[in-house]
Design brief:
three-stranded antiparallel beta sheet; Dna Ligase, domain 1; 48% helix; elongated; mainly alpha; two-stranded antiparallel sheet; single chain
Length: 404
């Protein structure tokens, strides 16, 4: 009996070990199933979210039905068209519209042109418009002259009052936006961008003064219900969004003008973008329309800024005029109060003035200049020489002066 029991015991041991091993292995077999099920669950959830997003975007249900204008340049690819639709707020996702266009076999049938439509009409209606043509967008051209400030101001030139129309008035006159909406939108800009981050908002009268590039722009009427004739005059849009878009457009042009080379050159000279645009505005007002003299005028002011011992004040008369026109406290007055550069730009500068600020004429050692009534420039290296030139111009009847 003992032997039989021992035999039974030994014959049973392997089975017991096998059963134990099988019991241990079962969880290991189930683990991949749990992982697979979890991954499939996540995929299903993602597909549901994508499907719902696609359906809402496809049908236009995710948008409010606002009118939008989309400009499709000639030769645009379906990818570029989709991106423009997304930027204009006509669709939520450019990739989804590209997928739809491929599935609908319409991607090679879209036309170029200007289209205005409600943004909740959905993919199919948008595609039909792009194929068959849409409503021609109403546009207006606005020119912002070099030297224009944000607000109107009046100056006296040789005893004659001259009103310089500001950007706010120019946009309103063209019907782009209301002046009040424009001024309000100036305060709601994101100042954290590389272009704007060096602005001192507490010291400037208008932080974006000088950042709205002087150029000719074509703006599109948004077509909203607020755009309606008033007192028989042209349409003036009262949509705050149009004011914001106008500002964004002008800021973008300034970003396009300032190159990486300019930024590096400013750093070498020890100046920020804000300081360079401030100097550019002074060059613009001091030089007028003579772009050939701008690098020389820039060199004069750079020479003064480097020689603080002899020139603690920059001595630019337009800085006085600007401060007075803003009913300011003198903080921009570089002849009597503000040392070095003023707190910010004085006006919208053109490309030539901005280039001159960053790239002054080399080895141009003059520290004074004056112009005559014909616009000719005279440069001097001493105050006595400068005074003598002014007296000569006065005696010849060529002296020109202006004040506010």
């Amino acid at each position: 009996m003992q032997n039989e029991n021992l035999t039974d015991l030994y014959t049973l041991e392997p089975e017991t070990e096998s059963e134990t091993e099988n019991t241990k292995r079962k969880p290991k077999k189930l683990l991949p199933l749990y992982i697979t099920a979890g991954v499939l669950g996540v995929i299903i959830i993602v597909l549901l979210i994508v499907g719902i997003s696609f359906q809402r975007d496809f049908s236009g249900a995710s948008r409010k039905g606002d009118l939008c204008t989309v400009v499709i340049p000639q030769g645009s690819s379906v990818s570029q068209i989709a991106n423009r639709l997304e930027e204009a707020g006509a669709i939520d996702n450019a990739l989804l519209f590209r997928v739809y266009s491929r599935m609908a076999k319409t991607e090679n049938s879209y036309h170029y042109g200007d289209f205005t439509f409600e943004n909740n009409i959905g993919f199919k209606a948008i595609a039909d418009l792009l194929i068959n043509g849409g409503k021609k967008a109403e546009t207006v051209t606005v020119t912002i002259p070099e030297g224009t400030t944000i607000r109107d101001y009046t100056k006296n030139v040789n005893n004659k009052n001259v009103t310089v129309v500001g950007i706010a008035t120019l946009l309103k006159s063209a019907g782009v936006c209301q002046e009040s909406d424009f001024l309000e939108a100036l305060d709601n800009v994101d100042f954290s961008s590389n272009l704007l981050k060096s602005i001192n908002k507490t010291k400037t009268y208008y932080p974006l003064e000088g950042y709205l590039f002087a150029d000719t722009y074509e703006f599109y009427f948004c077509g909203c219900k607020k755009c309606s004739p008033k007192n028989g005059q042209d349409k003036v849009c009262t949509s705050k969004e149009c004011a914001k878009k106008a500002i964004d457009r002008m800021l973008l042009r300034t970003e396009e003008i300032i190159t990486d080379e300019m930024v590096q050159n400013a750093k070498k000279m020890g100046y920020s973008i804000h300081e360079m645009l401030t100097l550019a505005s002074i060059i613009q007002l001091e030089s007028g329309i003579d772009i050939n003299e701008m690098p020389n005028v820039s060199a004069v002011f750079h020479n003064r800024l480097k020689d603080k011992a002899h020139f603690p004040y920059l001595g630019s008369s337009p800085t006085i005029y600007y401060d007075k026109s803003m009913n300011g406290d003198g903080r921009y007055d570089t002849q009597n109060i503000a040392k070095g550069l003023p707190p910010g730009p004085l006006c919208a500068s053109g490309a030539a003035a901005i280039n001159a600020a960053f790239l002054p004429t080399e080895n141009f050692n003059y520290t004074y200049f004056v112009t005559d009534s014909n616009g000719k420039f005279y440069y001097n290296t001493s105050e006595s020489g400068h005074s003598a030139t002014i007296k000569k111009l006065q005696s010849e009847g060529k002296w020109i002066y202006e004040y506010y």
